[in-house]
Amino acid sequence: MAHNIFRLSRRQLLGYSAALPFAGALPQFAAAQSPIKTAAIYTVPVEQQWVSRIHKAANAAKERGDIEYVFSEKVSNTDYERVMREYCEAGQQLIVGEAFAVEDAARAVAKDYPDRAFLIGSSFKPDAAAPNFAVFDNYIQDASYLTGIIAGAMTKSGSIGMVGGYPIPEVNRLMNAFMAGVKESRADAKFQVAFIGSWFDPPKAKETALAQIDAGADLLYAERFGVSDAAKEKGILAVGNVIDTQADYPETVVASALWHFEPTLDAAIAAVKAGSFKADDYGQYSFMKAGGCSMAPLGTFDGKVPAEVKAKVAEKEAAIKSGAFSVAIDDNEPKSS
Q1: What is the CATH number of domain 141-260+306-322?
Q2: How far is CA 262 from CA 98, 99, 269, in A?
Q3: In which element (H, E) is residue 238 found?
């Protein structure tokens, strides 16, 4: 996930307002009967957590026969617009990608190709000026909150280290939800919060996490690759984000918040097939009640997490799914305490 570093700078770059009514003319999409020609553009390797979930969902749709799927990975921000335009010229009907660092360019391309559907990761809302440009994001605060409940029960010292990529909404909301969950189990918990200024720099993430361990942390929140390596090396626990890495760290990763992109992509595919694709906010499809996120099975830690804690997690999960309880969406930068 390649974003600008600060949300404010993105807002200064763009003049887009928050959610607008979409009363303007929508592009006239023809209903698609055959597999939808779909192209994805990624700024990082497909192995990266966030992108890997999009890639997984796209491959599943391809295997079902709903789409034809091609993709480009490790595309630089300066090359992003060119790649988008090439896919549009090649006849791709649905363009999936991430516009966090290239908002202006991505939306400009959408305006130039009104008969293409764009499903793009963005911190901003849909805009009436680009009626074929729908946005999404990984709103997995529900699952992050549940992993926090586990973490709060498993820390011995109450000192938790947290390493993220950048302090932007997409990361902040997950960290804040995790911290709120921790407080449910350990009200006096303290947090060391750090950002490495990269979406894919495992050595730097590990180095930062090791420093937090040296400063007293006995459990780590691994928003980035590399953090669990530090936890494993020092014999402490870690909580994962977006993907489940417990198979690689069976004695280290106690819980993970998983993002499932399938509901988001499937909704877009259905809209394109029906000829009704428009500028929508697809963020809702990442919520737990929509099947867009979940907490990974405890696996090797199933017998190590206290029964009363597992019961509390199950109770909260049921309340989230029923709508009886809502996890706060807090996009503010989390601070050390």
Answers
A1: 3.40.50.2300
A2: 16, 19, 10
A3: strand 237-242
Is residue 206 a contact partner of residue 229, using CB atoms and an 8 Å limit? yes
Helix, strand or coil for residue 16? Answer: coil
Phi, psi of 311 (to 5 degrees): -65, -40
Collapse the DSSP code of 173 into the 3-class scheme (helix H, G, I; strand E, B; otherwise coil) and give the result: helix
CATH of region 7-137+262-286: 3.40.50.2300
State the DSSP string of 91-145: T-SEEEEE-TT-HHHHHHHHHH-TTSEEEEE-SSPP-TT-TTEEEE----HHHHH
Domain spans of the chain? 7-137+262-286, 141-260+306-322
What HEC string does 271-325 produce? Answer: HHHHCCCCCCEHHHHHCHHHCCEEECCCHHHCCCCCHHHHHHHHHHHHHHHHCCC
Do 218 and 155 touch, CB atoms closer than 8 A? yes
Question: 125-162 pLDDT, tens per residue?
Answer: 998 878 999 999 989 999 999 999 999 999 999 999 99
3-state secondary structure of 40: strand
Fold equal for 7-137+262-286 and 141-260+306-322: yes
Quick check: helix, strand or coil at residue 191? strand
- pLDDT (tens digit, 9 = 90+) per residue, 32-76? 568 999 999 999 899 888 899 999 999 999 999 999 999 999 999
